Amino acid sequence: MEKAVKVLIDGATSDLTFSYLVPEGMSVTPGQRVRIRLRNRPAVGTIISLEKVDTATLSYSLKPIEGVVSEDAFLTPGLIELANWISSFYLAPVETVMRTMLPKPSRGEHEKRKKEKTAALVTGYEAKTAAHRISKKQREVIEFLEVNGLTALAVMISAQGLSRSSIKSLEDKGLVEIEERIVQRDPLSNVEYVANEALELNSEQKEVLEEVLEAGRKISRGEKPKPILLYGVTGSGKTEVYLQAIQDTIREGKGAIVLVPEISLTPQTADRFKQRFAAIQDQVAILHSNLSEGERHDEWRKVLEQKARIVIGARSAIFSPIKNLGLIVVDEEHENSYKQDIVPRYQARDIAVVRAHLEKCPVLLASATPSLESWNNTLTGKYDLATMSKRVDDQKMPLIRIIDMRLEGKKTKSGPTILSTKLRQSMEQRLEDGEQTILFLNRRGFARNILCPECGYVANCRHCATTMTFHRGEDRLICHICGFSQLPPRKCPECSSKSIVNAGFGTERVEEILQKVFVDARITRVDTDSMRKKNQLRDTLNDFRAKKIDILLGTQMIAKGLHFPNVTLVGILNADVGLHIPDFRAGERTFQLLTQVAGRAGRGELEGEVVVQTYTPHHPSIQHARHHDFEGFAEQELQMRKQFGHPPFQRMVLVTVRSVHQERAEFSLKTLHARLKRGLPEGMGLTDPLPSPLVKSHDQWRYQVILKGLNPRRMTEHIRTVMKDLTFPSDVIVTFDVDPYSMG
Ligand code: ADP
Ligand code: ZN
Ligand code: ZN
Question: Fewest CB within a 10 Å sphere: which of 132, 268, 301, 532?
Fold first, then answer.
């Protein structure tokens, strides 16, 4: 018998596995990435299992593994199991799922790791110094290395101001060794963290912490605790509970993952974790998209090498290779950004529950506005509910005022009003009192598109069937779907009218107007356009905290997780635009957004006020948000969802067919629809074939059907059976989205 492995090959459209021999002297483990040959071409794959084969009995010869991508197994056994689960549930190839789990630089034939020149003293250098004349500058180098040990040359020269030529002469003398080594970059290495102590918990916090710890104890007794949903109002001290639960997890020698939405992974959040666990360097790894690819990779490496035991990160951090997992927390669990919109289209909150189940650890989902899916799971008894209904120190919830903008509009003749009289006055008051204001703009709604007031022409992207957005700074129209850009027309292409104008307001436009209204105010705009530079957001938020900014104007980026005690006014400029889109979650999203944004006000000693501007003041989402009434909102919304058979009562799979050829896309979808319909299992529903809401995108035509039913596994099983004996033209792409968040 000889040692062999089963290897899952990268890049194949459907999963391919082959056996390969393990060469003499090579030792490998499942989850390790290897280089092999496939049909005489070099290829890469992941070892999914070890096996023993008797090559003498085989009618063909097995090829050997050519080499390893790394000595380390990138995937833990738990992650391999999870990849299989995701593949089956979301109808995605296992190999795609596995590579999604890895940071980019480790997905290829070689793990791309940055090497740097480093310097260190050779052993026994003291004895050797006697034989040489050592200059003052060289002495400085030696003393530095005595204290700091091996250091990157770049750091010694640029940050420490040591002399390059002195280091070189020491190398010539054989006292210092210069070597290329892998150096881990730490994006926050220039920040010093002062450890802070755990706070004395209030009684609600204590109860929740106890519940999480009890779930852990249940697991060690062999019981299976339910996932816990923590419904805790904004400012109730949820983060402090996570911190203390993690402290306990670390004490037990286990690791923890905290998922936070990308937009709320602010420096402030990261700092709270870094500070609490500052006692051990590198213990906390932070994974977010603002890091360079190399930095992300280094953070991930720290986890892989089990140096970092705590991971804070956005969606994909759920795949962190922590070996002995003791806790998973999903903060702001209702956030849409947990759903990935490319293959594999997984929902990280659900994956957190699955991973916790597979690896036997407690899982805590938390939000001030839980998703209706999770809330419903507490009603059916699938999840346990924990509640924190009071703000820390019993602060009051901020007073929310609703302003009917239909009435405001009538007051002026110059088009839509941006600031109501009430909001303007409140802002003036804050400026006078030296308090701060956050203004929130729901970007999605403030369509900044080009519209002809004479004929109604709207500038559309020629590759996608969507309106282009006007960017004042660059003076260009940009498509937010494909990135295509062009100069804005100076006259209407349809009717030649010169009065073609900018129809809505973007953050830039609002900033301009604010600056005119509040001449002396210090105003800063925060959105993805203005915060491109590294650390710009961190610096801006620091300035805001230091009261160097009076008014912070921004989009979703400032809606979550920020904590500024001196902010006493939050204005929401256009509360309801998100309501008028064809999506059954529109009401839920609006409620969540209003509640979260309102939660930014009055987080200090001073009482907070929220001004909500809307054209539909009586909408239930707005009224329930006004009364801080999540439970009332959930009850009403769930009743409606039940009536219409929407999630969470029925589940959905969105099937989309795309092609550059319109007829082929349409025809292929019709064929697929007919096959799905034939033998449709009882209890499942199928919509008619329809053009997608976005019928053309990136030059591709899109058609879709939606499969509905109670059991997602039965639906995907049906799809798999149908797809098995269907083939499509090569330019036709069929995609599946289980539990979709965007209806095309
Ligand atoms: P949430 O995550 O629910 O919005 P946070 O955890 O951010 O709330 O807490 C809000 C503020 O209250 C933070 O500044 C935090 O340090 C503070 N805080 C939390 N728990 C306590 C406590 N038990 N005692 C005193 N301050 C607390
Ligand atoms: Zn026109
Ligand atoms: Zn486009």
Answer: 532
